Amino acid sequence: MNNLWGDSLSGFWSAWIIVITLGSIGLAFWLLYANRKTDKTPDADGNIETTGHAADGIEEYDNPLPRWWFQLYVGTVIFSLGYLVLYPGLGNFAGVLGWTQEGQWEEEVARAEERFTPIFAQYQEIPIPELAQDGDAMQVAERIYLNNCAVCHGSNAQGGYGFPNLTNDDWLYGGEPENIVTSLVRGRNGLMPSWQQLGEENIENVTQHVLALSDLEHDGERAERGAATYASVCAACHMPDGTGNQALGAPNLTNDIWLYQAPGQSVADSVRQSLRNGRNGHMPAQEAYIGEERVHLVAAYVYSLRFRD
């Protein structure tokens, strides 16, 4: 109730909910109680009159409710009233047990922390390259990864459109343990500006030059013309030889790995789109959500991925 209406309801709305809730229960009980018997009596042959309702040749007899059914319903009414006394459900009345969903969640978290904190603390003392070889630790780390990272990087960690593949050696910010930890603790913000001001002719020339850097099929004449433009506007981030700059998160353009290549899209079209529109990448910092110990475990898990078959 607090999640829907804030910390508390006004007096009017609290009273309204109480009246509606108890009134509905009372009305339903009265309706059933008033119709628990019938004034019809069997004839000499033991037959009861019908109510006049019929469907597909089946007639409804005017029999009273089975006693067990009525008693069961009375039991549900008693249970519902007891529930509303113990738990919140009547406006601002919190229930005599004082239960809240936030309180239950906090208790569950506290129990989990008490149980798992010593285990995480033990793993925290192990260097990441060594921890990456621990099968039991990696099973724990994989669960944390699947709960927090797989939504972007995929359950197989092979990434997707705009989300890096974590299983290869192409690392925007470096793949050493300290780089991975920094990414998890601080997050990353990648930005490539739009270069529409170059004009379509120069964009096409630079595209062909980028294709040439990865030894892909390209127009040699345009690539040669694009080299000068690349040197003046792109080399500062991607380096003159196109190998990228991990300090800036600038991708390597020489290994034929493309972060923003959509399924079915050619590399040339992906590069053109990047030049025309720019790119914005954001990875949120994770330490605030999963804690320092879990960051250490996930970093070890990600570090281990490149060594798997």
Structure, described:
The chain is mostly helical. Helices cover 54% and strands 6% of the residues. It has helices spanning 2-5, 11-34, 67-86, 101-124, 128-131, 135-148, 150-153, 177-186, 199-213, 220-233, 235-238, 267-277, 287-290, 292-305; strands at 50-55, 58-61, 188-192, 279-283. Strands 1-2 form a two-stranded antiparallel sheet. Strands 3-4 form a two-stranded antiparallel ribbon. α2 packs antiparallel against α3. The chain is elongated.
Element order, helices and strands? HHEEHHHHHHEHHHHEHH
Helix count from the secondary structure assignment: 14
Structural class: mainly alpha
Strand content range: 5-15%
Looking across the biggest beta sheet, what order are the strands in? 1-2
Residue windows where pLDDT falls under 50 for at least 5 positions: 1-6
Proportion in helices: 40-55%
